[in-house]
Amino acid sequence: MQASTRSTTGKIDWETMPYGGDLFGEIHLAETAPAPEPEKDSYFPGLAICGVAAAAAAWLSDHYGFPIILLGLLIGLSLNFIARDPRTHKGLDFASRTCLRIGIVVLGLQVTIGQITALGPAPFGALLVVMGATFFAGVLGARLAGQSNFAGILAGGAVAICGASAALALYGVIGKDRLSQAQFALTLVGVSLASAMAMSVYPVLAAEFALNHQQAGFLIGASIHDVAQAIGGGYAFSDAAGSYATIVKLARVALLAPVVALVTLAIGPAGEAAGQPMWKRLALPWFITAFLATVVLNSLISVPQPVSHAALVGSKALLLLAVTATAMRSRMDLLMEMGWRATVPVLGATVVSFAAALGFVVLLL
After folding, report:
1. By C-alpha distance, which of 217, 196, 191 is closest to 206?
2. What is the pLDDT of residues 221-253, one digit of tens each?
3. How far apart are CA 319 and CA 196, in angstroms?
4. What are the beta bridge partners of residue 12?
5. 53 belongs to a structural domain
6. Residue 1 has what pLDDT?
7. How far is it, in rounded angstroms, from Cα 86 to Cα 80?
8. Does residue 50 lie within any of the structural domains?
9. What 3-state class would DSSP assign to 246?
10. Furthest CA-CA distance within the chain
């Protein structure tokens, strides 16, 4: 017989109960005990979540033909609550910074100096003017909308050069202490949407204006933001226009390093670098220097086509990870507070880019 669990007073003696489990006590301890310290030194949680989100964006883009960078942005923004967990910070920071820089370096394998010189002096000069006008249109649009000059530099540079890749590179120079991640994310969304719209509309407008293959190729290559969409828009007009648009667009990509260098000279480097000696402050970010070196290397040696293709895929994957991670670290409440004025720099730069390119097409080509 089991011993009685009641004391002489008639109350239950919990200490004498065999296997007595205080369930409510355990619940109380679980609720009041301090939470375990998160593993802040691990890259895995943030990288794993970012990788899954980027893979989802790639799958949707492949099956539905939607711009992959825009999908990465939207999925990242929808998952921004994940960044509240400190365990994800190290991995997300690695994806948004290191993956970005490596992706820009690898992008240099798609450009050669010969592609730039193949344009000829007049089209290349016209391209420089179009890019300059686009850049300053972004800055002017930011001022008119009450935004900071840094927002205009980011938007104008992204539209003038190569869309999201240029925006990521320029934001590395501007820094989050001078421009919020929310403004950066909103600029990326605007650039991606404008580029997707341009890829569909610009070939139709080129046909309406009765442009020839070279004219259409220059217009599309000089004004569409993203590399893949500029090339796709050119080939949507004709094969000859697609080939010329590819050359024009890659010439814009090659000018990424000089533009970033000029921006660094104009505004100075971000954050801690501001207190360094002059020669260090004027130095290009290492990934831009490496991008230039990759372009020179690609111009001096013949890179096999499979290697070049693999480098393009790898660059896109790294940039997609960077964009997705940046979106996850962005605060939706700040995006909501910015309103329509924050999109003015991108819209202004896009309109000026198309108008300037069309003007040179009519005058020179």
Report:
1. 217
2. 999 987 777 877 888 888 788 878 878 888 888
3. 17
4. 6
5. no
6. 46
7. 13
8. no
9. helix
10. 108
Residues 135, 156 contacting (CB under 8 angstroms) = yes
Identify whether 334 is part of a domain: yes
In this structure, how many other beta carbons lie within 10 angstroms of the beta carbon of residue 12?
Answer: 12
- For residues 317 and 69, the answer to whether their CB atoms sit within 8 Å is no
Residue 109: CB partners within 8 Å, gap ≥ 6? Answer: 294, 298, 303, 307, 308, 311, 312, 315
Q: Which residues contact 361 (CB under 8 A, 6 or more apart)?
A: 211, 215, 218, 219
Rounded to whole angstroms, the Cα distance separating 221 from 200 reads 13
CA 347 to each of CA 180, 195, 359: distance values in angstroms, whole numbers, following the listed order: 19, 11, 18
On whether the CB atoms of residues 173 and 260 are closer than 8 A, the answer is yes
More confident residue, 282 or 225: 225
The domain tally of the chain equals 1
* Contact in structure between 273 and 285 (CB atoms under 8 Å): no
Answer yes or no: are the C-beta atoms of 71 and 334 closer than 8 Å.
Answer: no
pTM: 0.68
DSSP for residue 42: -
Residue with tokens 């200490």: 15
Cα atoms found within 13 Å of the Cα of residue 5, Cβ hemisphere only: 10
Residues comprising the chain, all counted: 365
Q: What token pair was written down for 110?
A: 């798609």
Q: Which domain holds residue 352?
A: 97-364
Where residue 174 falls (left for φ over 0; alpha for ψ -120 to 50; beta otherwise) is: alpha
Highest average pLDDT, of 93-102, 123-132, 221-230, comes from 123-132
116: Cβ contacts below 8 Å, ≥ 6 apart? 124, 250, 251, 254
Structure tokens at 159: 């539209």
Residue 271 lies in a domain: yes
Residues contacting 286, CB < 8 A, separation 6+: 101
Place of tokens 């290191």: 98
